[in-house]
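Good morning C.,

I know you're traveling, so I'll keep this short. The sequence:
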Amino acid sequence: MAYSFIYSRWYALKKRLSSILAIYWRYRPNRLYLLIVVIIQILLWVFAYQTYATLGNDLLVAHYNVDFGIDSIASPKQIFNIPLLAVAILLVNFITLSFFTKRLNFHFLANAAGITGIMVQLLAALALMSLYLINFLA
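The tokens, ready to paste straight into the viewer:
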């Protein structure tokens, strides 16, 4: 009896997720937003790994203040938090958007979520670039 209940819940969840993904994918601008976000996300991970490999065993200067100099020093592994945080924000963005798939204003919300996702990726890229500048050019 419990197996049947769990299976029916799993099947209902799978069907609901399938319909959400179909509605999301049918709207063409979402495909473009997703393509741009995936490309930028891949570049973020590559750039973070390149910075990590270049640092080696040295410490990562995590923050630099113009007035006082270095404010924060961290492990080089901390550089992977930036792309990971960008992925987390994208997942929260998608989950939030999935609640509005049946609404009348879904297209507006999908555009807003897509542009927000691209902006988050660009801000993460700027953060990685500033960490690179702080660690290697300053």
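Safe travels,
E.
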